[in-house]
Amino acid sequence: MYDALFEYIETRSGLRLTEEEQTVIEGKFHHKSLRRKQYFLQEGDICKQIAFVVKGAARMYSIDNKGHEHIVRFALETWWLGDHESFNLLTPSRFHIEMLEDTDLLVITTVNAHELRDHVKAFDLTIKAMDKQLAIATQKRIHAAISMTAEERYTDLMNTYPQFLQRFPQNMVASYLGISPETLSRMRKNAARN
Amino acid sequence: MYDALFEYIETRSGLRLTEEEQTVIEGKFHHKSLRRKQYFLQEGDICKQIAFVVKGAARMYSIDNKGHEHIVRFALETWWLGDHESFNLLTPSRFHIEMLEDTDLLVITTVNAHELRDHVKAFDLTIKAMDKQLAIATQKRIHAAISMTAEERYTDLMNTYPQFLQRFPQNMVASYLGISPETLSRMRKNAARN
DNA sequence: CGTTTGCTTGAATTCTGTCAAAGCAGGTGG
DNA sequence: CCACCTGCTTTGACAGAATTCAAGCAAACG
User: Which tens digit of pLDDT belongs to each residue from A4-33?
Assistant: First the structure.
């Protein structure tokens, strides 16, 4: 179960983990299984832990005052679950994090994550690398949102994350793109013609 | 000139800087003045340095294949200039960073920034805090882009950054919101009625 | 086998962009 | 000091794009 996490840390940090470090890491995380439709976080909760996805899939979304859902992020294997804002500021989250498949997680609390960063250099480097990657990905997404048409955003998504349409229902992909399911359906019909 | 930076680091890190540390920091940064309409970065450049804004204002934007500009970010005093993606991956930037006012910057290279993080703990903590804040702000912006109408995004912006409309022309605010200047003008007219 | 869930399609409506024109500063040079 | 630019905002008319509402259909699920 922990092998996927060790491999992830070694790849991201560029360092090898000693057996001792592996033991420390195992002590700070704990395993958690969630089935499809179960929640890791619900709106109003304070996000006091984050989780590494060993196997499975999830979505993070909000519900607006008209009752519509808006998917901010998906998560697949080797991605992380958690609401940055709530986690860092200890404010109630505006988001839900729901499993879309039966999922295996490795969970760590805020406090343990900080301790681990102080004691295991490879983990600190990993988090730094994640932060960078996240900054890049979110900047791209903002750029896409303000500068591309819905159709361009869709083809861009297909190039960047072709897995998404295979593992997530189309109406959720539409929600992620910020368009209605009907619009996405029509766009795909047009795109197939060309 | 450096006082604003020292104060910023001390506030963000929660640590006091020794005189020695202040000297080290001064040695790694250098001062640069840019006038209105001058560029800190142009499309195609690799972003090998970032800059702390001591005084002034700037915008970061791209130009699409129709020749339209799209503003991804603004920067004011105590904010930073730089393209995360180009800076971290050393790829050519898709963005321009242009001064909107005469601006004083403190510039640091990639290499020096890494060294400084290793030697001055307060600086490392500051960068970590910045990364967190950036992650929160960008997540909010993505959420706004996919879940709000143009009008909701506008009022949200006015609440979060009321300075923007005072220091930036309205057509740039429109570009930042991802709408046309005409639409923003009409929205403001409607909002004034209520 | 019935129910739920997701996908598609059509028609009406609302929103937004585009194009064009006009007005309104602030700044510059004569 | 005035006339003229130039950059920015406003307004109107029109076209195009996306949402909404409604209906029908297929596949998956319990």
Answer: 999 999 999 999 999 999 999 999 999 999
Distance (Å, whole) CA B155 – CA B151: 6
Q: Determine the residue among A59, A62, A74, A84 to mutate to test chain B binding: the one whose Cβ has the most chain B Cβ atoms within 10 Å.
A: A84
Which of B11, B13, B84 has its CA nearest to residue B47?
Answer: B84
B182 CA → C23 C1’, Å: 15
Q: Is the Cβ of A91 closer than 8 Å to some Cβ of chain B? A: no
**CA atoms of B58 and B81, how far apart (whole Å):** 8
B152 touches strand D (CB under 7 A): no
Mean per-residue pLDDT of chain B: 93
- The residue with tokens 């290499």 is B111
* Residue A69 structure tokens: 């859902």
What is the number of residues in chain A? Answer: 194
Q: What percent of chain A has pLDDT over 90?
A: 86
Judge whether residue B16 has pLDDT over 90.
yes
Examine the pLDDT at B193 and tell me if it is beyond 70. Answer: no
DSSP letter at B101 equals: S
Domain B3-137 is of which CATH architecture? Sandwich (2.60)
Q: Does B72 touch chain A (CB under 8 A)?
A: yes
Q: Closest nucleotide to residue B180 (Cα to C1')?
A: C17
Average pLDDT over residues A106-125: 95
The answer to whether the CB of A122 falls within 8 A of the CB of A158 is no
Find which of A133, A143, A177 to mutate to test the B interface (most B CBs within 10 Å of its CB).
A143
